[in-house]
């Protein structure tokens, strides 16, 4: 049979190739040619007939040759054959020339045949062939885009004319394939700044597709519902492709308006006809709730309350309800049982006070992987991640061929139609998300009202859509809104019930919508079963908490979120559990802190027996506590067993350890301890690296932001730090590890019992297959936790009287740190071993390795090829802890511990590993000014080593990342600011000879490195400016005269002047002015004879007069008036007076409204500078200043009086000196008239003000 068909195929191909001219219309040759083409179409399904690739290409070229003219009668048969050949999976890839010729012929034929009546089948065959060739064509030429989709393109004309719906679907499919390009093409075009599509093509496609999307659905007799769904899905995908590939050419408002109705297509309770916006978007009525039933708008307020009560009585979203509302829905989407999601009244099953607080996953087992896969849409959008996935997606985007149409239902039944409607909703949400993402964070909130405030909203999709991927797509749109939105969401406020206004402000709209979003996300969290959707919901909650300013909103939002999120900190899926911990981190890090969060952390605390509570905890709060709700449901034994498996501590142990005192803080600490210190191997199965890291982050957030509340649980946190830090340092002992040194706080009995049970037992669960694959990261985060704890203690001590800790307690905590977690670093520094990271002698380590089981963390680290790199990272994490010392605590440690710490820092600074040197330089930069460090005998050697190490890190610019250079420049600037403190130690040392702390060579090298840093990145320049300014002010006159340093000093001043006068980095300009002030006020350089004096005065004077940044003007004024004598001003004395008086006059002219907060300080600083100039005044200067003072006396008088009243006593010394100097000059004999007038004006300006 195959041989017969092969012979027939060959004969028909030979017959087709013999045709050389176009046959006449109606002739026998034309009929024979039609018979040949029909026969070839009937032979194409056989794979063996298509092995001759050259023959197939010849057939294709023949079909588009001059014989088959685009406007002839044989177009339909030729197009049918082309579609049959190109759609077959065995057809070979055509050459570029043939493809271009084929696209041109199909476009021309479609343009001629599309406008003719009665050519529906011809147009359909042409579109089938065009779709087939576009599927296999990547990145067509520009002329192809213009010929197919331009203003007069063939596909555009096909959609504009009144063609059949099947042809419209095929034309949209062609546009979908035409507008999709690979991700590599998009990336390359963005890098080059080129457009992928011509602007004409983008405008044409956008216009015609939006028209197709917004037109009324056809009658079922004209177009089936499934065909219409395919049309909408493809049209929405085209809009998505346009937004991704040409974001600057699309109209975001039009696309969002067209896509929004289809985000709810097929949902029960929402009529598509009511949602389609035929006109521009109507104004939003935010305070009121819109209903799907248009007749309800005429109801009275009394009837509205009745309808709200009926809404609350409606059943919640469930699979049977959704199926009843979707399967039998007609094409127009009639409204079936249910109503819209309002903003005032609670939607169905969203009244959180009337439903069980138990999450959905605790009511039954989650669906398996096969059920999850069953929720996938029929045809997702083209992916932009991998090339292979792109091809598969493109094939799925177009339905398969069948005997009837290309869009017939293969599977049959209502499930197929439900999946298609879900795909339409998903495509709509993806297009909306693309628009919001491309428009930028400054303009994306213009789409917030129609998508988040009007009913139905995106929250409707999250709560009521039965398709998993649609719910995730809606959450992704909300995530895009919330990402980097803190500046806009901080405007959100909530009006109290008492205050009423005639209009609704933007802040109130945001506040109401944010409260609704909190409520809906809490409901979605407890009603969701799929782990992927739970993860997306938790990420949305995390973004919401990070960007909302809760201090401006009414309390209650955080309590509901935490109540529901904490359930999932014991979820069976690790990724869900990790994201729940991450949400808690965001909650704990809320800034500014709100009282609700503190009350939430102190909740569940049992009151003391001596004083009965005025208000008992509500029963609902007792229900919210995980582990207690299960005891009330005795019949649900399966649920109890599942919860016991999830709890790493059994219920009896947890209740026994509470000791009658339970707070949210202790509960959080307990959950983190469960994740970090497991009891048995069954519990360890669900613990992975993500949960452990997030648990450490939760503890870090607790100790850094809520130290006062965490103090009772501090011994337990110390236990966690001890065990986790020793994980890679020594193997697990078979006997319980000794408890660390106790913190001097009172340790409750339940904490002591819990600590005793937290000890690792090597005999019960030490199997490496059940635990974390990357212990090094856990160790690094453990020392980060320790650093947060010590940093919080340091911050708490700085509050003096308000501190919750005293110096003795902080000292004991640091002694525990040095004797425990940091002991390994101190031991390495003392022994001088650079590669050993284990405690004990090598002999003991070898004996332990032979006779005891190796820790799972050690086993993984030993097998890793990056063991050395991981070891360095861990030592860096340990060394970073030393940067949290405070001066008082360091001095209280005593000479022995202070010497060991300084020796350790010196070992780090001189280490051959760059990362360790950087950690040592950072620690020394913080401790360099401590009195205990300065007085230590080894501080001078450490100072020299630090300067050398910082210079080495800055010199190797190409070999170091910006972070290293930034840290090294900052450290060098800090060290250079305290050189004066080390002069006494240097003079008393045995090396004292040159009477200088640093040698000439070292000073020259530091200046060279600092000058290079001033030309580095914007973040490094301010530190480079500080560095060269500090070193230049530290130089002695004989050093400045040295031939090697003199050019560097001149270059330093020139660089500082350039940095102060140019550039957009205000921090650099401020530091440059500060550095110039240090140089001129040091008194070590001869300013009077310096060649650069006039340039410095001119630059600073221009800044004081009219610079836009007031902080820079303040610092420039301070530097300008920092001279120690009149001779240093020289001839620039009058110019300095002019700059100050003009700057005082211009201080009222504020260009940027943000500078108004610095205006008073600028006025005070200029007035103080005028007093400093008066101190150096002479009679000759008074005569010269007479005219200038007469011009500005009316302006300067009130401001000087105001500044005198506002200046604190410590800053009024110059004013008193100025008064004394002016009175002294007035008492001189033989004053000229100009001198006398000037002195009288200055007397009035500097006279003490009287507070009337």
From TrEMBL:
Compositionally biased residues, Basic and acidic residues: 847-862
DUF4042 domain location: 423-591
Name of the protein described by the UniProt record: HEAT repeat-containing protein 6
Ranges annotated as biased composition (Basic residues): 302-314
Domain of life: Eukaryota
Polar residues: compositionally biased ranges: 831-846
Sequence segments annotated as region (Disordered): 281-325, 365-414, 612-639, 831-870
Biased composition (Acidic residues): 621-636
Gene that produces this protein: HEATR6
SUPFAM superfamilies: ARM repeat
Any one Pfam family match given in the protein's UniProt record, by short name: DUF4042
């Amino acid at each position: 049979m195959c041989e017969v068909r092969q012979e027939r195929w060959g004969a028909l191909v030979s017959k087709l190739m013999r045709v050389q001219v176009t046959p006449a219309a109606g002739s026998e040759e034309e009929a024979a040619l039609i018979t040949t083409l029909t026969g070839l179409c009937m032979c194409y399904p056989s794979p063996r007939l298509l092995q001759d690739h050259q023959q197939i290409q010849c057939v294709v070229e023949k079909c588009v040759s001059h014989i088959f003219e685009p406007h002839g009668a044989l177009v339909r048969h030729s197009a049918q054959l082309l579609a049959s050949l190109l759609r077959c999976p065995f057809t070979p890839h055509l050459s570029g020339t043939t493809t271009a010729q084929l696209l041109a012929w199909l476009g021309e034929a479609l343009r001629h045949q599309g406008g003719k009546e009665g050519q529906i089948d011809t147009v359909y065959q042409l579109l089938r062939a065009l779709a087939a060739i576009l599927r296999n064509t990547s990145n067509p030429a520009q002329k192809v885009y213009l010929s197919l989709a331009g203003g007069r393109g063939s596909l555009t004309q096909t959609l504009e004319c009144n063609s059949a719906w099947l042809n419209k679907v095929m034309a949209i499919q062609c546009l979908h394939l035409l507008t999709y390009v690979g991700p590599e093409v998009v990336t390359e075009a963005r890098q080059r700044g080129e457009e992928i599509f011509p602007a004409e093509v983008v405008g044409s496609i956008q216009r015609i597709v939006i028209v197709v999307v917004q037109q009324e659905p056809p009658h079922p007799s004209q177009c089936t519902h499934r065909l219409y769904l395919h049309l909408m899905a493809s049209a929405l995908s085209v809009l998505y492709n346009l937004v991704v590939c040409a974001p600057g050419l699309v109209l975001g408002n039009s696309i969002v308006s067209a896509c929004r109705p289809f985000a709810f297509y097929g949902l029960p309770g929402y009529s598509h006809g009511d949602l389609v916006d035929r006109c521009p978007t109507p104004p939003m009525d935010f305070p009121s709730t819109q209903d799907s039933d248009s007749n309800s708008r005429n109801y009275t307020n009394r009837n509205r309350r009745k309808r709200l009560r009926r809404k609350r009585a409606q059943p919640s979203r469930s699979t049977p309800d959704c199926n009843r509302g979707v399967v039998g829905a007609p094409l127009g989407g009639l409204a079936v049982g249910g109503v819209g999601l309002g903003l005032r009244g609670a939607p169905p099953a969203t009244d959180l006070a009337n439903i069980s607080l138990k999450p959905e996953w605790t009511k039954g087992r989650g669906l398996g992987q096969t059920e999850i896969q069953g929720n996938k849409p029929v045809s997702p959008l083209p992916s932009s991640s991998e090339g292979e996935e792109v091809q598969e997606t493109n094939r799925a985007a177009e339905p398969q061929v069948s005997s009837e149409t290309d869009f017939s239902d293969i599977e049959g039944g209502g499930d197929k139609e439900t999946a298609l409607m879900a795909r339409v909703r998903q495509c709509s949400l993806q297009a909306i998300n693309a628009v919001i993402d491309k428009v930028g964070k400054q303009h994306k909130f213009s789409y917030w009202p129609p998508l988040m405030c009007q009913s139905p909203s995106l929250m409707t999709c999250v709560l009521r859509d039965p398709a998993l991927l649609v719910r995730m797509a809606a959450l992704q749109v909300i995530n895009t809104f919330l990402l980097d939105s803190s500046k806009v969401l901080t405007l959100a406020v909530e009006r109290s019930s008492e205050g009423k206004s005639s209009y609704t402000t933007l802040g109130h709209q945001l506040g109401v919508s944010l409260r609704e979003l909190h409520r809906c996300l809490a409901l979605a969290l407890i009603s969701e079963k799929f782990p992927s959707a739970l993860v997306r919901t938790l990420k949305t909650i995390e973004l919401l908490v990070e960007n909302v300013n809760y201090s401006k909103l009414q309390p209650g939002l955080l309590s509901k979120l935490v109540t529901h999120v904490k359930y999932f900190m014991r979820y069976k899926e690790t990724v869900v559990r990790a994201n729940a911990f991450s949400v808690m981190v965001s909650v704990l890090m809320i800034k500014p802190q709100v009282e609700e969060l503190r009350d939430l952390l102190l909740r569940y605390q049992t009151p003391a027996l001596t004083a009965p509570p005025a208000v008992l905890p509500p029963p609902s709060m007792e229900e919210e506590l995980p582990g207690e709700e299960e005891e009330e449901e005795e019949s649900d034994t399966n649920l109890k067993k599942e919860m016991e498996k999830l709890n790493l501590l059994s219920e009896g142990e947890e209740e026994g350890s509470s000791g009658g005192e339970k707070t949210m803080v202790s509960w959080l600490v307990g959950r983190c301890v469960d994740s970090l210190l497991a009891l048995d191997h069954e519990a360890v199965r669900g613990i992975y690296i993500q949960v452990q890291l997030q648990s450490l982050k939760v503890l870090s957030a607790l100790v850094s932001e809520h130290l006062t509340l965490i103090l009772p649980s501090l011994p337990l946190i110390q236990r966690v730090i001890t065990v986790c830090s020793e994980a890679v340092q020594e193997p697990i002992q078979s006997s319980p590890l000794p408890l660390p040194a106790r913190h001097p706080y009172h340790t409750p009995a339940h904490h002591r019992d819990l600590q005793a049970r937290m000890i690792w037992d090597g005999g019960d669960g030490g199997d490496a297959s059940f635990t974390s694959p990357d212990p090094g990261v856990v160790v690094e985060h453990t020392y980060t936790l320790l650093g947060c704890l010590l940093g919080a203690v340091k911050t708490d001590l700085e509050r003096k009287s308000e501190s919750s800790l005293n110096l003795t307690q902080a000292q004991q905590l640091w002694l525990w740190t040095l004797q425990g977690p940091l002991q390994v670093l101190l031991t390495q520094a003392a022994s001088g071993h650079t590669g050993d990271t284990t405690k004990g002698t090598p002999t003991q380590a070898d004996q332990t390795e032979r006779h005891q089981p190796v820790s799972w963390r050690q086993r993984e680290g030993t097998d890793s090829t990056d063991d050395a790199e991981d070891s360095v990272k861990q030592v860096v994490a340990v060394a970073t802890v030393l940067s949290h010392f405070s001066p008082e605590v360091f001095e209280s440690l005593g000479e022995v511990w202070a010497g060991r710490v300084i020796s350790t820092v010196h070992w780090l600074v001189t280490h051959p590993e760059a990362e360790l040197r950087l950690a040592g330089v950072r620690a020394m930069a913080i401790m360099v000014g401590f009195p205990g460090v300065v007085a230590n005998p080894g501080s001078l050697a450490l100072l020299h080593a630090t300067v050398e190490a910082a210079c080495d890190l800055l010199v190797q610019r190409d070999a170091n990342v910006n972070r290293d250079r930034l840290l090294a420049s900052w450290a060098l600037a800090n060290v250079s600011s305290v050189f004066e403190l080390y002069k006494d130690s240097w003079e008393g040392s045995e090396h004292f000879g040159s009477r200088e702390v640093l040698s000439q060579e070292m000073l020259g090298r530091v200046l060279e490195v600092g000058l290079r840093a001033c030309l580095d990145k914007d973040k490094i320049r301010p530190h480079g400016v500080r560095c060269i300014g500090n070193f230049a002010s530290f130089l002695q006159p004989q050093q400045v005269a040295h031939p090697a340093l003199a050019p560097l000093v001149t270059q330093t001043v020139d660089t500082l002047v350039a940095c102060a006068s140019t550039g957009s980095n205000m921090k650099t300009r401020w530091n440059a002015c500060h550095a110039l002030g240090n140089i001129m006020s040091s008194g070590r350089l001869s300013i009077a004879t310096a060649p650069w004096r006039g340039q410095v005065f001119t630059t600073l004077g221009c800044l004081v007069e009219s610079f836009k940044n007031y902080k820079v003007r303040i610092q420039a004024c301070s530097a300008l008036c920092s001279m120690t004598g009149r001779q240093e001003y020289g001839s620039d004395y009058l110019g300095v007076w002019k700059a100050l008086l003009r700057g005082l006059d211009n201080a009222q002219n504020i260009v940027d409204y943000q500078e108004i907060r610095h205006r008073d300080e600028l006025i005070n600083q200029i007035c103080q500078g005028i007093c400093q100039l008066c101190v150096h005044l002479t009679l000759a200067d008074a005569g010269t200043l007479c005219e200038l003072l007469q011009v500005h006396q009316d302006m300067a008088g009130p401001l000087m009086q105001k500044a005198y009243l506002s200046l604190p006593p410590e800053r009024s010394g110059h004013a008193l000196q100025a008064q004394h100097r002016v009175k002294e000059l007035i008492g001189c004999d033989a004053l000229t008239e100009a001198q006398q007038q000037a002195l009288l004006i200055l007397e009035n300006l500097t006279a003490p003000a009287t507070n009337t």
